[in-house]
Amino acid sequence: MIRKRPIIAIDGPVGAGKSVAARELARALGFSYLNTGAMYRAVAIAAREAGISPDDPNVEERLASVLKGIKIKFDGEKILLNGRDVTAMKDDPEIGELASRFSAIGSVRMRMRDLQRAAGADGGVVMEGRDIGTAIFPDAEFKFFLDADVKTRAHRRYEELKKKGASITEDEVLEQLVERDRRDSGRELAPLKRADDATVIDSTNLSIDAVVAAMKAKINDRNNAGKDLKRA
Ligand code: DC
């Protein structure tokens, strides 16, 4: 497929810095930004409100009506689920955990895949998640896999949660993060995995600015004709 402007896929585990880097890169390039993890979180919120557990033996059947009409919209930093602002709930660690569990379910992944492909079809987008470069847009023009040492990731996540007033210890954050990585990488459908052609960036000792600079350098490098992505 020929796209006028590229798709930039950024995948990686929790706490590697994907969201901040993706948002900043999108801003710098004048691209749109899609946080696919937030979409799975919105599904988790909708399912929880409908009283559906990921362990329900009829989970797919019960989820069908939730998924069918689901509307997930972004308005700057805000996330709207069926027109309602759910931004405050989105970062709840319990929602992250539920999102990870619902994201292993086939019908959820299929629905998100369709929405994500529709959102990115025209290119000019930085999309971040777990499976963007492997399953959603395997033909993305640029793919990055952002990773970092597990303790560093847990520390970052802990600092973020502390700022938001969560009462959780760093050890608990580490434990949850290891479990989420295990589940996201071990699931059968579109597991968290580096695409063979993705550029790996280890952010353990890098600032966000340095991560974004490394991504921009790679993009400019490949844009060998010197074409300015902003105007392409
Ligand atoms: O990026 P995040 O932590 O907000 O994502 C929440 C969960 O959603 C994550 O643990 C796994 C799932 N997810 C996914 O399966 N595929 C994506 N592309 C993005 C997120």
Please characterize this protein's 3D structure.
The protein has 232 residues and is α/β, with parallel strands linked by helices. The strands form two sheets. The chain has a five-stranded parallel sheet, sandwiched between helices. Strands 3-4-5 form a three-stranded antiparallel sheet. A hairpin with a 2-residue loop joins strand 4 and strand 5. The radius of gyration is 17 Å and the shape is globular. The two termini are 16 Å apart. Bound molecules: 2'-deoxycytidine-5'-monophosphate. 2'-deoxycytidine-5'-monophosphate (DC) binds next to helix 2, helix 5 and helix 9.
CATH superfamily: P-loop containing nucleotide triphosphate hydrolases
Alpha-carbon Rg, integer: 17 Å
CATH topology-level name: Rossmann fold
Write down the overall mean pLDDT: 93
| Derived structural class | alpha/beta
The residue ranges in which pLDDT falls below 50 over 5 or more consecutive positions are none
Count of strand segments: 8
Number of domains: 1
Sheet with the most strands: spatial strand order: 2-6-1-7-8
Tell me the β content.
5-15%
Distance between the termini: 16 Å
The number of helical segments is: 10
Percent range of helical residues: 40-55%
Highest CATH level, the class:
Alpha Beta
| Shape annotation | globular
Run of helices and strands: EHEHHEEEHHHEHEHHEH
Gross CATH architecture: 3-Layer(aba) Sandwich
Major sheet characteristics: 5 strands, parallel
Heterogens? 2'-deoxycytidine-5'-monophosphate
What is the gist of this entry?
This protein is of the alpha/beta class and 232 residues long. Helix content is 50%, strand content 15%.
